[in-house]
Design a protein that fits this description.
The protein has eight helices and 16 strands. The longest helix is centred in the middle third of the chain and has 18 residues. Helix 5 crosses helix 6. A hairpin with a 4-residue loop joins strand 5 and strand 6. About 25% of the residues are buried. The radius of gyration is 26 Å and the shape is elongated. The structure holds inosinic acid. Inosinic acid (IMP) binds next to strand 12, helix 7 and strand 15.
């Protein structure tokens, strides 16, 4: 299909081209449409590969704009003779993406356009992507921890919070906590192990002086007694200190209730809770959570520190695993119990 020289956007009255007559190449500015939908919107794509790419970006919750900007490439007098409208713009990465099929003639033409645009706008961040390259791009924009090339066989069903969304929320929490604790220092207590990345990122977003300590609650299969207990206790004395307990996720509230009761006995000056994820629907005990990152639906989640049988913690996003993962594990455990090889 031949590429339109002037895309729809440029023919619209909202984007008058005639206004600027170039004296030199750089004086002709790109035309940007403010009316295109931002991230996750639905648009009419010119090509199925674009729809597929948009779907992939949606899956990873990467914000995108479809053909938001047209760059004049060549002109005669005040008449533009060639334009370049990259297919996508990813605002979080300030990156333009032009997709291409495997057809050599098209690739050559697009490479030529790309060379020209780089001459005119050397600071522009623009890449030409083949279908094969999609996964590589996603790896570069923050999904490096996943074996992206084998994505269809991966265990992830859907991503609930992207690295960018998490980073923005953590920064906002850090800012709020810094304001609320003005004039005070804090003892930040992290509940191991799920809190690893959250605590590391959050504390760097807090501008108050703080000390860090850790607590671990013994997991059920390690609890030799029939009562919940600390597998690791605090090193610091928290009496008279302002304590901020950091939790990865609150579900039933049972863990948090136990921990809060034990910490209150040590008479801190104040004791508040900051939880990144909250499955409020599943709450059994009403626990006081002052700072919440995200309320999430009632599904088992992994990533950004959260695990399933100690795995998936290092995924940079929060996601739901496919039910097959649990079924597979269940079958393997049953086989082990029954003495069958896996
Ligand atoms: P709660 O006692 O039911 O509130 O659960 C709290 C603890 O269970 C958290 O600190 C996590 O370690 C773990 N947990 C609860 N829900 C999830 C989940 O969806 N994924 C991973 N760990 C979870």
């Amino acid at each position: 299909m031949p590429e339109p020289l002037l895309p729809e956007l440029l023919r619209s009255p909202a984007a008058p081209l005639e206004a600027s007559t170039p004296a030199s190449p750089r004086s002709l500015p790109p035309v940007t449409s403010a009316s295109h939908p931002l991230a996750f919107g639905r648009v009419a794509f010119a090509h199925p590969a674009e729809a597929e790419f948009a779907q992939l970006l949606d899956f990873y919750r990467v914000a995108w704009l479809y053909e938001p900007t047209s760059f004049p490439l060549r002109w005669e007098g005040d008449r533009i003779t060639e334009m370049f409208t990259p297919d996508f713009y990813l605002p979080e990465y300030d990156l333009y993406v032009e997709l291409t099929t495997m057809k050599q003639s098209l690739i050559t033409r697009k490479h030529r356009k790309l060379r020209r645009i780089r001459e005119l706008h050397p600071d522009l961040n623009v890449v030409l992507l083949t279908r094969r390259d999609y996964y590589e791009l996603l790896a570069r924009v923050g999904y490096g921890a996943v074996e992206i090339t084998s994505l269809p066989e991966q265990d992830i069903e859907r991503i609930l919070c992207s690295p960018t969304e998490i980073a923005a929320r953590v920064a906002a929490l850090g800012h709020q906590i810094s304001l609320d604790y003005a004039g005070r220092s804090i003892v930040v207590v992290g509940l191991l192990k799920g809190v690893t990345y959250f605590l590391a990122d959050l504390t760097r977003a807090i501008t108050r002086p703080l000390a860090i300590d850790y607590l671990a609650v013994a997991p059920p299969d390690e609890r030799q007694t029939d009562r919940v207990r600390f597998a690791k206790d605090l090193d610091l004395d928290i009496a008279g200190r302002h304590v901020l307990l950091i939790e990865d996720i609150v579900t039933t509230g049972l863990t948090l209730d136990f921990v809060l009761n034990r910490l209150r006995q040590r008479q801190p000056a104040s004791l508040e809770v900051c939880a990144l994820f909250d499955k409020r629907e599943r709450r059994l005990i009403d626990v006081p959570v002052l700072y919440t990152g995200f309320e999430i639906p009632n599904a088992y989640v992994v990533g950004y520190g959260l695990d399933y049988r100690q795995l998936y913690r290092n995924l940079p996003f929060l996601c739901v695993l496919k039910p097959e993962v649990y079924a597979r594990d269940h079958a393997a455990r049953l086989a082990a119990v029954n003495g069958h090889p896996r």
